[in-house]
Specification:
single chain, alpha/beta
């Protein structure tokens, strides 16, 4: 039997990273993969514009007047994965996400019944959004942990 196969964590974080590559955002490519306790994928998401909003017609800038930036419009990867899930329930599921969720996505994660978050990066750790997110997660018992990389490199040609 082969011994160098990837773990479930590597597999699902890899899928979240691959999903992030669908984003049209020049600065933030975030991906999410929701799985159940049987390690079956329930849904995927990436940060992008809402369905029906043409990417080319929407703002992608980070600075400027609020209506001229992406922040008023972009739907985050976690929310996309939750909203796009065909599963009747996400109760007890895990979400693998490439960036620790903001406070708004955290509310959706809690409300959807997801019980664990595995995140790759926490680059906004000290922001009020992240502090609020951790406060809500701690209050509700939703577990979260940093994905521990094993230094494995995987390359693909598509």
């Amino acid at each position: 039997m082969r011994t160098d196969y990837i773990s479930w964590d590597e597999y699902f974080m890899g899928i979240a990273l691959l999903s992030a590559m669908r984003s049209k955002d020049d600065n933030s490519q975030v991906g999410a993969c929701i799985v159940n306790n049987e390690n079956k994928i329930l849904s995927l998401g990436y940060n992008g514009m809402p369905i029906g909003c043409a990417d080319k017609d929407m703002p992608w800038r980070r600075t400027g007047a609020p209506l001229d930036t992406k922040y008023m419009f972009v739907c985050h990867a976690e929310l996309n994965a939750i909203l796009n899930s065909p599963a009747p329930s996400l109760k007890g599921a895990r979400v693998y996400v490439t960036l620790f969720p903001c406070n708004e996505c955290t509310k959706a994660i809690i409300q959807s019944g997801i019980s664990e978050i595995i995140y790759l990066s926490d680059k906004y750790h000290d922001t009020e959004s992240s502090i609020a997110a951790r406060r809500m997660l701690d209050m509700t018992g939703v577990k979260y942990r940093k994905y521990e990389t094993r230094g494995r490199r995987i390359t693909m040609e598509l």
